[in-house]
Amino acid sequence: MKVSLLIENFCLDAIIGIQESERKQAQPLIIDLEVNYVYGGAGQYLDYMAILEAVQDKLSSTPYALLEEALEGISAWLKRCFPSITEILMSIKKPQVCQRALVGVRIHRTFD
Description:
It is built from 3 helices and 4 strands, in the order E-H-E-H-H-E-E. The chain has helices at 20-24, 48-61, 67-81; strands at 2-14, 27-38, 85-94, 103-110.
């Protein structure tokens, strides 16, 4: 059975961006994530907390200049860590960049 694991409004701070100020100090990010995978019954599921930890570890250990690079790197990392993943929909938003709107980038990636 194919199921979707949902994570919404995961808030964390990370150094990401191309502006000099963004490279010096961590800024808040909001991450939404939908992970589709093949559920194989008891013992063959994805752990929400393990997914959150993998995302946080990747963002804290890898310097990204662009949100697009972060989305590519994190989605590839999640697939390596959790081979049962078949599809990832993920967005990263920067709530402090623009006062008039919540801005960010989204990726939709399907794996064979």
